[in-house]
Write a structure and sequence with these properties.
Chain lengths: 303, 167
Amino acid sequence: MCLGGTVRNAMNRASSAWLFLTPALLVLGVFFLLPVLAGLGLSLTDYDLYALADIRNLRFVGLANYWELLHRPLFWDALGHTLYFVIVGVPLSMLASLGTALLLNSQAAKLKPLFRTALFAPVVTTVVAVAVIWRYLFNPQSGVVNFVLTHLGIGPIDWLGDPHWAMPMIILFAVWKNFGYNMIILLAGLHAIPADLYEAARIDGASKWRQFRHITLPALAPILLMVGILTVSGYFQLFAEPYVITEGGPLQSTVSVLYLMYNEGFKWWNMGTASAVAFLLFLVMFAATALLWRFGGGRGEAA
Amino acid sequence: MNARRNAWLVNGALALCAALVLFPLFWGLSVWFMPPGDADNLPPPILVRQYARGLPGELLEAARVDGAGELRIFVQIVLPLLKPILVTLAVFTFLTAWNDFMWPLIALTGQQHYTLPVGLASLSREHVQDSGLMMAGAVVTVIPVLVLFLALQRYYLRGLLLGSVKG
């Protein structure tokens, strides 16, 4: 009888747990799982303008969309541009976040709340609006950036018209817009490091650099890894910046994977191809974050 | 002596960074001096749960001992205690919705439904030369979120940290 009571109790707990979870699961199912499955299904069809007009035109094409994409140079170009953006932009962004967090955490720093607010401000702004401002700053003829560069003796750079300079400008924009977010998280991580560790190191005669290398970095390692993974997956989804600043140009040098997906799906209405692009991007992002996790996790254990 | 030099270095570097970061924002404000016609986290339930876990359980126990029902405990005790995190959530949700770009761009079919970012983007692809108009659009779009952030940044930053550092 005692045993029966325990079993009934456990069943009661389980059923009330399911009761509380049901709304969240329903929302997740309808707004996340279902669209993902529909997208996967769509990527195996030739859903386009003709199917939009009459659903009877819809045909199942298997992996043909993927096959066609993998043989299209523009897809590989877009993937290359996106990887360029991630590989250069993420480390720059992390360095800016870590550098400003260290400065703000320094005992010598004054007016900390003011500086913190100022450095964080770009994060809350609207991408499109500040991208519009950015485009005028970097205008090759009348922009302030070229005005300053010319006075410094560095020739005017055609930021918007030269395929070699358009992506660096977009990377600069993304770093400026996003570094404040990670800065706040790293700052909280720095606050959590006990002060006596530094004091002990100082007594042992460790230099500032060695204190940073052997106390600050190991203590921040888990936060750096998490922030890094979030930044990588965010940067892979580059879209609004090239859409507003360069419109994918010049010479398609700033077409990202998501930009290609948008053009395929919502400009040409090739929804099947667009869904396939989305799943290929998902695979690339999954592989990149899994690699980062393994690499970072292994190092974290060693430290 | 060394400490003073260090203070100068740190604060100088901070001031330089802040100036560089703020420059584009202030540049946008230069629209006021231009003659007219001149050439985007954490899901909300987890955020609230993280915060609610920190509430003292004794409070709830005391209310139960006093004979309060579960609904009454929630309305009269838990909800008032959750007020700060609900403000955080409201600020977060507002900023995210206001700044959202890709989803409204895809989902909105007519100009009469455009949000500010979508309208600004479509303007900027059509009227690149009219910098006064574009800058005005940018300022109108950015000012509300900046003001909201400046007024409620305590709540915003807490939400950011609750969602990320505590694991």
